[in-house]
Structures are given as C-alpha cells and as structure tokens.
Write a structure and sequence with these properties.
The chain contains eight helices and no strands. The protein is mainly alpha-helical.
C-alpha cells in the first residue's frame, strides 16, 4: 500500500494511512510537534482540494513532498523570530541593564547554531539516510550506541564506523561553518 493511486485510495484512507508519516516529516524539520501538526493539516487540506480535480498517482510521495515544502516555507517565514525561553526568568528580559545586550547576542548565536545544524542535517540526509539516522539517534536524540544499533538493525561496531564516516564527511563539507561557530 506504499503508493496507491487516488482511485483506489480515498481521502479518509490516505489520511489514516499517512497522517503519522506526514507529521513526523514536518516535526523532523520544525522540531515542534504543534507546528508539525499544523503543517500536516495544511498538507491534507491541499491534498483534499487537489485530488478532487487532478489524479494523484503516488499519494505518499505527493504528501511527503508537499509537507516538506510547507515546512521549508514555515522555517523561512519564522527564521527571524527569536523565541523567549520560558524557563529563563522573564524579569531578566524586561530589565534594562547591560545584561540585555548579552542575552540578545546569546539568542542570536543559538539561532545561528540551530540554523547551521538544520542545514547540515538536511545535507546529511540527502547524502546518506543511514548516516542521518545514526547521527540523529546518537547525537540529537541522545540514544545510547547499543540502543541506536538495535533500532537500526546493525552491530555496535557498524554504528561506530557509520558515525565516524558521517562526522568525517560533515567536517569536510562544513569546516568553515564549524570554525565560524567556534570563534564565538
């Protein structure tokens, strides 16, 4: 049932079958479950409207492409926003001290690091999905090497080798970005 035509798969069936995959795709890039659900809702709305007039030959591919494009548009639109960390004392943001400038630059630096991280992870995903999975499990989700290897169905030695090759490729491709971030 991977990629059925719209004739054999109605909207409700497509929604039930691919809802979680669309939300996960959006969440991968936004890192925000609520935004991912909004993007998934918009994706299925577009699918519903589009499929009424045009036959979609590969439903899953169409949904994933639209979800990814909507996510990129969301990221571009909200790139300049600097969210206030709600765990930090709100009074620190309201006081007009020398500290305010430091807080601003700290937020800008964190935002730059996140942007660079997203660019690197996206490029890594395009280069090698297994490397991306390994890096995501171990470094982003902080899963132990043993569990990550089990999830991926490989040995721990294979995971170590995969992580080494992924780190080496990232360093080769993005050394300038690393140097810029470290100079801070």
């Amino acid at each position: 049932m991977e990629n059925q035509s719209v004739e054999s798969m109605g909207f409700e069936e497509a929604f039930e079958t691919y809802r979680d995959a669309v939300v996960q795709t959006a969440a991968l890039y936004t890192r925000n479950r609520h935004e991912a659900e909004d993007i998934a809702q918009e994706t299925f709305l577009r699918y519903y409207l589009y499929s009424r007039n045009v036959r979609v030959s590969k439903v899953k591919t169409w949904l994933m492409t639209v979800a990814k494009n909507l996510t990129y548009n969301y990221i571009k639109k909200h790139y300049r926003e600097i969210p206030i960390d709600m765990t930090t004392d709100a009074e620190a943001y309201l006081e007009m001290e020398e500290n305010t400038e430091n807080v601003f630059f700290e937020k800008m630096w964190n935002k730059e690091v996140l942007k660079t991280t997203n660019i690197i992870l996206d490029a890594l995903h395009r280069k090698n999905e297994k490397w991306f999975d390994a890096v995501t499990y171990v470094y982003c989700m902080e899963v132990s090497h043993r569990k990550a290897a089990k999830y991926m169905g490989i040995s721990e030695d294979a995971l170590q080798s995969m992580l080494y090759r992924a780190r080496k490729w990232i360093k080769k491709q993005y050394q300038e970005e690393f140097d810029h971030i470290i100079e801070r």
